[in-house]
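*** Protein under study ***
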Amino acid sequence: MRRAVRSGGGFEEAAAYSRAVRIGSNVAVSATAAIEGAGVVHRGDTYGQTLAALEKALAAAAELGASKTMTLRTRLLLAVDADWREAARAHRDVFAGINPANATYFVGGLIPDGALVEVELDAVVDEAPR
């Protein structure tokens, strides 16, 4: 069974994607930036943007039955102006003791103006879908 979470953002419509999708026990959360309302929050603050993006990604996963402890892998996509140490610190603050697999990349740029970080997350739910 396939379930999806959509946040209603215009880019989801334009690009035909979902915030998160669950098929069977697998949950995948699309690249998520620290956006609220019409814009990026915590401008210029890599740590703050990473925390906000992780919280948003975890909330989407939770809508599909995945808790933080079920996180298998994260990916941090960093704009060239981002401080990777601050992104890593935020990741540690959220996932210490869970320690999912992770990859962190510098990318040429991110689409939301002012975004320093986008987060992707994969989880495996150890219960049958409802």
Summary: The mean pLDDT is 94. The chain has one domain: 2-124.
